[in-house]
């Protein structure tokens, strides 16, 4: 089979969109398409006509035609099968089958046509595969965005905390200064925070800790007499209270942070050294996606959970490590798959991620997937769903529909609550009128978004109702649901990371991001 061109034309033969897969002049294609309406029979749904050395395989699309121009020697059965797939792609990409909608989605349609046919020969692809190719989603990019967003939040919280500490220090210094002007002895001075620099100093962390503790344990300077005997001043009480609240970490913090020699001990999770920003060389990301297809009556048709554990090491000196995990199959019998270079036997026996060849290292500055897991469930197993829906459709005599959507939280599922729950409902004919006065929603150009928000045992069910004109109730489907779970569906976590060289079994600090979301969660 050789497809010369795929075109969408009007009833009069005007080309709305055309893609040529073989060497052929534009004028030749336009001439062929202009002569096509004279040969086409409008009384059939799809048929074939021939002219000169080419064959037209076509199918009506409302007021348009989907036309494939092939050579006369091609297999007619394959031609018709390809025509159906082209028509499905056009119907999927375009909300309406008119000239304006085709032109608005021209680039998406041309990209889909290129996926279907290469150099005139059809690729063996399904509609779902083409949708996946057009989405062009990058799992690695999504993980990096999550990590970057969490770092920004952590930095913002750190700035707020430091600002609050400085404000407390300034207020206490002002109070103590006012009190000290009437005394023989001055009150203790407080250190002022300045951003830490990193000079090279010979002192080790242990000596710094010892000196800091010694300084803190010294008794405070003796205050001058002149106050009432046997009674503490109010200012002294305030000072002692704030001093106890802030603790030695704030009062005796050095103005310049020393940078000790890098060792494995500095990166312990239990290290008490103050740190202004995260310097963890190891980043762990646990990402999980929950997909499901539900019927309008709430029955489960398809369910799948896919998860990935990604490891990123920014410091080459920490690339020889092992990860201790919690990885439970649970009642749903999760299937785990390790990376080919990871010791599978060690993971199965001890739930530890480590390279097979212990002489090798993990790559640095590159996010790699070391573990994957998957969970499926048979149809009608609604106990696995964190959230179920039932849709009630009532049609009036004037072609208007009343749609009621009910949700119910499954308290026996693997999560205690869901957050950021949003239901997206498509529409085509007219803008919906919402009847639920207490609901949060937003109407866009072609969809209605119902924001449920937080769902837990206290907010376990609810309903949403709207009215709209439509030619058929199918216009409101499929509805899509997105949400974020409090914890992963499959019990997977990283408990510790250990070095495999130098100080053996030395635990090192690491950053961890966990995200479990609902994507591809639809009601059909």
TrEMBL record:
Lineage: Eukaryota, Fungi, Dikarya, Ascomycota, Pezizomycotina
Keywords from the UniProt entry: Cytoplasm, Cytoplasmic vesicle, ER-Golgi transport, Golgi apparatus, Membrane, Protein transport, Transport
GO cellular component, one term: COPI vesicle coat
Alphabetical list of PANTHER family matching this protein: COATOMER SUBUNIT DELTA
All residue ranges annotated as the MHD domain in the record: 279-524
Subcellular location: Cytoplasm; Cytoplasmic vesicle, COPI-coated vesicle membrane; Golgi apparatus membrane
Family statement drawn from the similarity comment of this UniProt entry: Belongs to the adaptor complexes medium subunit family. Delta-COP subfamily.
Pfam families: Adap_comp_sub (PF00928), Clat_adaptor_s (PF01217)
Protein known as: Coatomer subunit delta
Subunit structure: Oligomeric complex that consists of at least the alpha, beta, beta', gamma, delta, epsilon and zeta subunits.
Disordered: annotated span: 164-206, 245-276
């Amino acid at each position: 089979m050789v497809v010369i061109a795929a075109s969408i034309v009007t009833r009069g033969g005007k080309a709305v969109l055309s893609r040529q897969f073989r060497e052929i002049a534009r004028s030749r294609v336009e001439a062929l398409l202009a002569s096509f309406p004279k040969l086409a029979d409008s009384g059939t749904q799809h048929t074939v006509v021939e002219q000169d050395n080419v064959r037209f395989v076509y199918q009506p699309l409302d007021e348009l035609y989907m036309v494939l121009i092939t050579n006369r020697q091609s297999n007619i059965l394959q031609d018709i099968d390809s025509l159906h797939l082209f028509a499905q792609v056009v119907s999927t990409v375009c909300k309406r089958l008119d000239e304006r909608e085709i032109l608005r989605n021209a680039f998406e349609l041309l990209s889909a046509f290129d996926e279907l046919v290469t150099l005139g020969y059809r690729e063996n692809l399904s509609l779902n595969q083409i949708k996946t190719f057009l989405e062009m989603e990058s799992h690695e990019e999504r993980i990096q965005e999550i990590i970057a967003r969490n770092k920004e939040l952590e930095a913002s919280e750190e700035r707020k905390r430091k600002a609050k500490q400085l404000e407390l220090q300034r207020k206490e210094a002002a109070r103590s200064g006012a009190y000290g002007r009437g005394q023989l002895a001055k009150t203790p001075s407080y250190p002022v925070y300045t951003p830490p620099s990193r000079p090279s100093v010979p002192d080790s962390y242990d000596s710094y800790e010892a000196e800091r503790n010694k300084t803190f344990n010294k008794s405070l300077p003796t205050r001058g007499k002149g106050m009432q005997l046997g009674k503490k001043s109010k200012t002294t009480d305030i000072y002692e209270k704030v001093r106890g609240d802030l603790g030695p970490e704030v009062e005796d913090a050095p103005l310049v942070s020393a940078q000790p020699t890098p060792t494995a001990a500095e990166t312990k999770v239990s290290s008490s050294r103050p740190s202004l920003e995260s310097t963890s060389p190891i980043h762990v990301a646990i990402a999980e996606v929950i997909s499901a297809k539900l019927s309008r009556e709430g029955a489960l048709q398809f369910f799948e959970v896919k998860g990935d554990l990604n490891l990123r090491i920014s410091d080459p000196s920490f690339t020889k490590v092992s990860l201790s995990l919690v990885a439970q199959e649970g009642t749903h019998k999760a299937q785990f798959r390790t990376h080919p270079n990871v010791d599978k036997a060690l993971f199965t026996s001890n739930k530890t991620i480590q390279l097979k060849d212990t002489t090798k290292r993990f790559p640095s500055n590159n996010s790699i997937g070391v573990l994957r897991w998957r969970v499926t469930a048979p149809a009608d197993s609604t106990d696995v769903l964190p959230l179920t829906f039932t849709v009630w459709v009532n049609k009036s005599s004037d072609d208007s529909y009343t749609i009621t959507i009910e949700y119910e939280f499954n308290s026996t599922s693997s999560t205690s609550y869901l957050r950021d729950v949003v239901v997206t409902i498509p529409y085509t004919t007219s803008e919906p009128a919402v009847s639920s006065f207490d609901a949060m929603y937003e109407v866009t150009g072609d969809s209605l978004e119902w924001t449920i928000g937080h769902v837990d045992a206290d907010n376990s069910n609810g309903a949403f109702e709207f009215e709209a004109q439509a030619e058929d109730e199918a216009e409101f489907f499929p509805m899509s649901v997105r949400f974020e779970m409090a914890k992963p569906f499959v019990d997977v976590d990283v408990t510790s990371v250990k070095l495999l060289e130098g100080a053996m079994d030395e635990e090192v600090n690491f950053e961890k991001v966990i995200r479990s979301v609902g994507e591809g969660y639809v009601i059909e």
